[in-house]
Amino acid sequence: MNDHRDDLLLIQDDLTFAAEESAETVLKCASGDAWKVVIADDDEEVHSLTRLVLSDYTFEGRSLNFISAFSGKETVKVMREHPDTAMLLLDVVMEKDNAGLETVKVIRDELDNHFVRIVLRTGQPGQAPEQDVVSAYDINDYKAKTELTAQKLSTTVTSALRSYRDLRTIERNRQGMESVNGLCRDLYRCTRTEDLARQALAGLVDLFHSSGRSEDVSSLFSLRDGEHDVVLASSGRFEGADGCPLDEIVTAELKERMQNAFREGDESSDEFGYYCLLRSQPGRSVRLIVECPGGMDVQERDLVGVYMANVRTAYDNILLNRELLETQREMIFTLSEVVESRSKETANHVKRVGRMARRLGELAGLDDDDVRLLELAAPLHDIGKIGIPDSVLLKPGPFTPEERTVMQSHAAIGRDIFRNSNRPLFQVAGRISYHHHEKWDGSGYPNKLMGEDIHIHGRIVAIVDVFDALAHERVYKPAMPIQECLEYIKGQSGRHFDPALVDLFLTNSEEFLAVIAELHDQCEPVPVDTDHVLLEV
Question: Fewest Cβ atoms nearer than 10 Å: which of 33, 71, 349, 438?
Answer without folding.
Answer: 33
